[in-house]
Amino acid sequence: MTSRLVIRTRAYSEELSKAAASIEQAAWSDLGYLNYTRAHYENYTEILNKYADYQLCLVDLETDYPVAVFNSVPLSYTGSGDLPQEGWDWVVETGARPKGPHTVLGGLAMSIPAVHRAKGYGRRMLRAMRELAESKGLRGVLAAVRPSSKARHPWVGIDDYITWTDGKGRAFDPWLRSHLSSGGKLVGPCKRSMVVEEPIAFWETWSKREFPRSGPYTIDGALVPLEIDLERGIGRYEEPNIWVTYAC
Question: To which H or E segment does residue 46 belong?
């Protein structure tokens, strides 16, 4: 029997909010170091709690449990000038400290457990994202999109990567392709979208390896190499994402 699916928000119940948090945590557990961008650890949880009605859950009514989760925050954004290179971190910081009326929806994360991937849930959630923005009277959506296959090509610059196409002439990256086929417009890269700077021991713990000399190193899941500076005793990871916008 086909599962019956419905969109709810974390505001629906405390149980759903907890289940959504578990889904997100599990989906991103291998990339847990991304939780240590300054914007994330200072503001992310606060945003999810404050704007619970902006956090979408695709719930399977047969199990009453979410199979996909989308997180977002309303932004006060005038739309003047280029979108910043700080990308995802900027969306979180701007959402945490609004300086005027909300005008657009800032996309933060899509979390789908591995067992539920390749079922079309991602595109369904992208549609729900646009519907959310419209229902809130916002004029559009902007998101610093994490290209899902970039980690397989960490030495390729993001400027080159976004020009890649598949055999049908579509965007090479499947998640970027999903955004574009759902009505998104590719604006360009944001090269410092998520910045994590921590002691070398932090990175050794996450990567389960040592860094004997300064320089770039690839680590699992990272979109670009981690830069190790032995003299300063730190490792710096600057993750590039891709700005995608939607008009409502």
Answer: helix 45-50
